[in-house]
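Bug #77: duplicate submission created two jobs. Keeping one. Sequence:
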Amino acid sequence: MKKSRRQLSSKSTHRIPWGVKIPVLLSVASSLLAVVVHHNIRISLDLKGTHIDAVFATKDAATSHPPILYGHVHMAKTGGTSLNGILANTFERVCGHKGYSYDAFQDNERAKIKLKKGQAIKPQGRSRVGLKSMKEIGFEECDYVSVETRKGVETDWTFWRDTFGDGKFHGLKMELHVPCRDRLDHLMSQCNYKHQKIACDAETDEELFESVKKCFTYVLQRYDEKLQNHFDVKCFDFKKQFTDYLKYMSGILQKRRFQSIPYVKRETNSPHNQTNECIWGNATVSEKVEKYLLETVPYYQFCDKCMGSDNEIFVGS
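Kept job's structure:
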């Protein structure tokens, strides 16, 4: 009976008596070689008594998963929405709060239509998948997971620990990737998002630092140093995420057959003008604030140690 492609892809044994004429053996060998080439089958021949055992084992490299999972710790105001969207539109099996691979093409095509009509492009609809929905879908078909976590709304950094920590997810380890951005620049982007201002004219340091904390956008919730107890945690340069980081991940993730190009950026922040931000023209205040951030925020402490170390991700690492 003729074997199906599925049967040829699995492990099977063909026994051919030595008494068969040589031309027939050559014909069989030629047919097997054609199957090997067409289906990317790895073949080994073993001589056992009066038979030839042909053992077939196949692995389709184009659809294979990497040996570990990858997680993107989406820190607010580090370009994570665009990064998630571009990854989902470019590679297979990306599962993110801001987009999934399986419908990223059509989602971006709809964004193109909105752009032509002059409509605002926001991370809405299929560009924004809630964590509850992500959990209902499951992560079994994901190679790369991007999640925003928010304490009191969905969850905090413990999502990573409780879902993937210590290889508990089907025995697979996960490597976490954290974007790192200049501290003051990151702070001011958060201030702009929350429509807050730094109190450069504050009479006390306490008043100054209170104005800083009002700008924080989940920066204390999404990263915690305890993550390093459960994962390999690596960092990458915020400024190079759409160049070097994407190139790095292209060597790991499978390219999608179809990509919607160009990717339409989903806006989550209005542009901010540094000339309206007092911190840039006040060296005393900027030094105090930068020191405060480094001393009190674990995320900034991590980035300070990680950038420039062996744990920084860059092309060739």
